[in-house]
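dumping this here so i dont lose it
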């Protein structure tokens, strides 16, 4: 239920930002300008949601741990790195409650604009 509620909020935000960006950039509001703006905003949703999905999965944790290990053993900054060892990993720092709604809204907006643009 939370997924649907958050997705509806993101869809409304997508439409509002799309209309606003279309008016700001093109200085007119037509169906084509709104369609182009919604497409671009939905791509940002997909990029941000994908980045959150990859970070939540722990992809950057391995990179972070290997850099910490290298900096501790391979450089003279080993004493400084003792303090850095206690910092949380990227997958543990953030709460990823908006990952699925962002991805879902971005994909729906993307597919809708692509399908409509082929029918124009």
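and the seq i came up w/
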């Amino acid at each position: 239920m939370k997924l649907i509620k958050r997705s509806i909020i993101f869809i409304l935000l997508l439409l509002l930002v799309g209309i606003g960006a279309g008016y700001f950039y093109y200085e007119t509001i037509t169906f084509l300008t709104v369609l182009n703006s919604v497409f671009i905003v939905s791509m940002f949703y997909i990029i941000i949601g994908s980045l959150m999905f990859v970070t939540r999965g722990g992809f950057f944790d391995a990179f972070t741990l290997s850099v910490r290990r290298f900096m501790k053993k391979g450089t003279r900054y080993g004493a400084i790195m003792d303090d850095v060892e206690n910092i949380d990993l990227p997958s543990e720092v953030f709460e990823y409650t908006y990952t699925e709604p962002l991805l879902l809204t971005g994909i729906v907006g993307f597919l809708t604009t692509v399908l409509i643009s082929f029918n124009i």
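Residues 7 and 51 are 18 Å apart (CA to CA).
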